[in-house]
Design goal:
alpha+beta, homodimer, three-stranded mixed beta sheet, globular, DNA-binding
DNA sequence: CGCAATAATGAGAACAATTATTATTTGTGA
DNA sequence: TCACAAATAATAATTGTTCTCATTATTGCG
């Protein structure tokens, strides 16, 4: 953690730009996210946030995560039935998940091709499709 | 439900063949699964099992599901962060999930292609890769 | 500036899916 | 039949997440 004033101001600006009130908690949460790996869980975020500062309660963490997702600052990734992961990369891309190690990696958009578009119902655009490549337990 | 003796005997045989003791509960659970849609949740199974017969407790349902998966009678599908889904199709194949409707569909093995195999670490065979195609909320 | 309206936060309860515990029951094999 | 090994039931515990609601910030306006 340990962010300087310029950094925090920049974060506040980004929140405002996304249409969010830059409250002190949200700024601290966003700053903690910036210091975490690209993919993280709510729990990891909570620990990072409360590393050295007074506590921000779970509810606010979860609330902010939902808000950040709703405002396009984060993406949710559902690979583990136990917990939701968050991804700071909000560009359309795909994921590779290995349940054996718990590792989650990005895959570029073009890495995967759907052979037959008629398999997808309705008018779904390619950028509205997220692939999750899951290594099967063997 | 309402299964006849021949049917139940056949189910018991399948359990035995998979290396499982065909207890009365497991036979009833397997019979209920046969009457459910291809994809189902533990909850749906529990309701189906206890539809007209004396109750089988949750623990046994969950236990049997885990056993059936471990013995190759069922496949787990993780798409919904809330609950695990089970699939009676144990052949390698892929899934299409629409979070908006909750609908889960099968996709044939050849429907999706990974362009660059070097993206996958280690010696993972194609049949050890499960794709989940997820419609993005838009 | 001060104050009402609005939004955000904290604390803890509530919840849902799943797993663990343990006593009881059932089945198996000698 | 008896001892031993599973399996089951009942229920408690756990985990991740959401809800409730009282308290505290923040904003907009007179």
């Amino acid at each position: 953690m340990l962010h300087n004033a310029t950094e925090l101001h920049h974060i506040a600006d980004r929140l405002k730009h996304a249409g969010l009130l830059p409250t002190s908690q949200r700024v601290r949460i966003a700053a903690a996210i910036a210091a975490l790996p690209q993919h993280f869980s709510a729990q990891e975020l909570q620990q990072a946030v409360n590393w050295d500062s007074p506590e921000i309660c779970r509810a606010t963490i979860y609330n902010s995560l939902r808000l950040f997702v709703a405002h396009g600052l984060l993406q949710e990734v559902h690979v583990d039935p136990q917990r939701t992961l968050y991804d700071t990369n909000t560009e359309p891309h795909h994921h590779l998940f290995d349940p054996a190690t718990g590792a989650l990696h990005d895959l570029p958009l073009g890495a995967i091709e759907l052979k037959d578009r008629t398999l997808i119902p309705g008018k779904i655009r390619p950028e509205d499709i997220a692939f999750i490549v899951r290594i099967r337990a063997s």
